[in-house]
Amino acid sequence: MSTIRLAVRENKLNNPARVTVQMYEDYLEVLGRGWVCEQDGVVIAFSYAAKADASIWALFVHPDKEGLGAGGPLLQLAVDWLFSLGHAQVTLGTEANTRADRFYQAKGWTRGEMKDAVEVFYTLQRPHCA
């Protein structure tokens, strides 16, 4: 996952040391849950959901594998899991004016205010079924 995270062309980490291997491990089961998408036995994308604040901690696709449809199902797995825990809303942040920004808008997420000059926040409400 770290290899994919460091390979992205957008939403790059200013300080790659900020996200540690321990963090990836903690979000797998302790702080949340994670999922991967594989192609021919190689991980090409991953997502992580943080249970404490009902957020998408990470959703990244290797740049060489973008456009294959891995992101949508990984996002849905994370969202469904968070809603199954009872959360009424899921949040995430991403770099503004990127493919990810357009991706979340296209998936029906509500675009919020900018946190700073770079990051924008999104929310998704749990559907209410009658």
Topology summary:
Blueprint: H1 2-7, H2 21-29, E1 32-39, E2 42-50, E3 55-61, H3 71-84, E4 89-95, H4 99-106, E5 110-114, E6 119-125
Antiparallel strand pairs: 1-2, 2-3, 4-6, 5-6
Q: Name the CATH architecture.
A: 3-Layer(aba) Sandwich
Binned, the helix content reads: 25-40%
CATH class: Alpha Beta
CATH homology-level superfamily: Gcn5-related N-acetyltransferase (GNAT)
Number of helices: 4
Note poorly predicted spans.
Answer: none
Shape, please? globular
Q: What radius of gyration results from the CA coordinates? A: 14 Å
Q: Within the largest sheet, what's the order of strands?
A: 1-2-3
Q: What is the β-strand count?
A: 6
Order of helices and strands: HHEEEHEHEE
**What is the count of structural domains?**
1
Content-based structural category: alpha+beta
Beta-strand residue fraction: 25-35%
Termini gap? 39 Å
Q: What oligomeric arrangement do these chains adopt?
A: single chain
Largest sheet: 3 strands, antiparallel
What does the average pLDDT come to? 91
Kindly report the CATH topology. Answer: Aminopeptidase
Entry keywords:
single chain; 3-stranded antiparallel β-sheet; 4 helices; alpha+beta; 130 residues; globular; 28% helix; Aminopeptidase
